[in-house]
Every structure is written in structure tokens, then in C-alpha cells.
Amino acid sequence: QVQLQQWGAGLLKPSETLSLTCAVSGGSFKIYYWSWIRQTPGKGLEWIGEVNQSAGSKYNPSLKSRLTISADPSKNQFSLRLTSVTAADAGLYYCARAGGMDVWGQGTTVTVSS
Amino acid sequence: EIVLTQSPGTLSLSPGQTVTLSCRASQPVGSSYLAWYQIKPGQVPRLLFYGASRGANVPDRFTGSGSGTDFTLTIDRLEPEDSAKYYCEQFGISPYTFGQGTRLDIK
Lengths: 114, 107
Fold this sequence. Notes:
heterodimer, A: mainly beta, six-stranded mixed beta sheet, four-stranded antiparallel beta sheet, B: mainly beta, seven-stranded mixed beta sheet, three-stranded antiparallel beta sheet, 10 strands
């Protein structure tokens, strides 16, 4: 049974970089796409982007200029890096298996405050 | 990007009733690429239905249907545990998008 475990710093100052990592266990990493999603008070649920080991990454245009999503197949992990965060980036961040997201990480609450 | 509009915004119903939630897309979405999720406070989102498939361990009281721009999630024989917020998502055309959600209260 596939499980996702995510981690990363949840308290940031404005202009800092958000870094989150999600580890995949119990199933294949390379054949699937892996997503990041966030839930914010302002926009509800928002798709951030996804990555596949072979196909590369796909980003939400609204975040693309600040966003990097990468995969590390040697560790069965994928990561999110969002630069120059503001209060608008605060919320609950999830990793999930893409395409009818049936497996989710536990979520990370991100707070942006000076 | 494709805008998904869900209706109604909020519902309050009684156990045993049947409800149909609506999700309307601003442009056609392949039915295989439309999903429904249930989110309860403090819990991880749960996949209910996508395409023609029910999510793992989802009761058959939950049924998704639709095509083109109009999709529905029907929940039969409502139970108090169905109180939650329900979201549709399209993952056929990037950027993938979610509806704003329907809050369902069962009392």
C-alpha cells in the first residue's frame, strides 16, 4: 500500500523559501506523477504542480516563476521549492499521487510571518 | 484555465435523504479527468470518484457522473458521517483546477 510522508519547515518569514519533501513508500515511484496541492484561505484548493521521473515537471502558471518541483528516484522522494513567499502563500500543503489523487501526505501547515 | 463552479455552496439535510452536488466547467472536460474529493476538518482529502471509478473503500452510496461541462456527485442514504466539504477537480488540462466546494451538513 502506497504511503506518502512529507516534511519541511512550516514557519517562514516573508521573502524566504519554502522547501517541502515527500517520500513515497510501498509502491512504484517512477511510473506515476506526483503532485503538490495547497489549501489556502484565499483560494481554497490550488494545484501547485506535478513531477514525473521521465516526463519532468509541470507547474501552475500562477506560481511558475517562483516554483521548482523535482524528483529524486534514488530516494523515492519528490520536493517542492517556492521562493519569495508572502502571506498569500500561507496554508496547508499536501503531496499526493497525481491523476485522481488517491494517496495523500499528511499535510504541512505553512505560516508566513515576520 | 478551466474554471469549475460548484453548486450549491452549502446544504443542510437529514439522514436518509439523497443529494446531488453539481460541478460545472467553463469548457469541456474529459470525463476520465474529473474527480470528486471529500474533506473533513483535520483530515486529509479523500478521493471519492474519478472518471467512472469509485475510490478505494468508498461506499457505493457515492456515485459520480456527467460529461462535457456538467458533472454531478450523488450521495444516497445520507449519514451523519457524510458531513464534509466536497470538491470537484479537473486534471485533464493544465493548470488543473478545483471548484470552490460545497459544504454539506447532515443533522
